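Inverse folding, one chain.
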């Protein structure tokens, strides 16, 4: 089945241009012109991905993303004219999976949508459910589910990609640049700081105390590693 993409953009011409190109790429496309409309559609239609402009007439896009994250792990691709690294970091902290600055190429937008959805659907699927730390962490790749201490945890596509990358070789240190290449398949300037934002969000979901993590550990001047040994 074709994935559903929700385009949130208040400029009519750009909104219709995005709709047209995404439909041509094979997606089912919904549109919203305001933050309130976007939140309602996100809840009722449950799209796989939201293309979200940050400058909306009623509420900032970052607030829309934070609201959506309370009930959904759908992928979010933010669109903005802001280019400062701090703006990108705030976007990722609000729950974005990717960030595209205006003006942008429609071809690049389609490629990024495809990459995000491919990560979310998992590509080649394994039927194995590896566990770590005597069952504290269980990763079910076939269902794209993560269980921590027996509880299902909802992860965004980027959080899922980071955790499963670290879990490939527990204890191995992964540099930030290597993690982004594994998760996205490309690098962009400034990601070494924004990956920390994704790790922070991930820790809030899987750690007992995010300030003293046990599952995802920081290695000074190195990157990150999984702190639990693989069972069996």
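Residues assigned per position:
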């Amino acid at each position: 089945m074709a994935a559903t993409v929700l385009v949130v953009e208040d400029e009519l011409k750009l909104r219709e241009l995005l709709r047209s190109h995404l439909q041509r790429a094979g997606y089912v496309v919904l549109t919203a012109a305001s933050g309130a409309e976007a939140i309602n559609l996100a809840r009722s239609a449950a799209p796989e991905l939201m293309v979200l402009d940050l400058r909306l007439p009623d509420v900032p896009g970052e607030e829309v993303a934070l609201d959506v994250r309370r009930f959904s792990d759908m992928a979010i691709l933010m669109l903005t004219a802001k280019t400062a690294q701090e703006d990108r970091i705030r976007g990722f902290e609000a729950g974005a999976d990717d960030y595209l600055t205006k003006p942008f190429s429609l071809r690049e937008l389609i490629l990024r949508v495809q990459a995000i959805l491919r990560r979310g659907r998992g590509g080649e699927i394994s039927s194995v459910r590896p566990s770590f730390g005597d069952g504290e962490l269980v990763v079910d790749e076939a269902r794209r589910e993560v269980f921590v201490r027996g509880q299902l945890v909802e992860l965004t596509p980027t959080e899922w990609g980071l955790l499963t990358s670290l879990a490939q070789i527990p204890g191995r240190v992964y540099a930030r640049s290597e993690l982004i290449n594994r998760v996205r398949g490309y690098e962009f300037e400034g990601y070494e700081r924004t990956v920390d934002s994704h790790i922070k969000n991930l820790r809030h979901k899987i750690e007992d105390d995010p300030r003293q993590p046990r599952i995802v550990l920081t290695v000074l001047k190195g990157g990150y590693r999984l702190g639990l040994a693989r069972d069996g």
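The longest strand covers residues 75-80. Confidence is low (pLDDT under 50) at residues 122-126.
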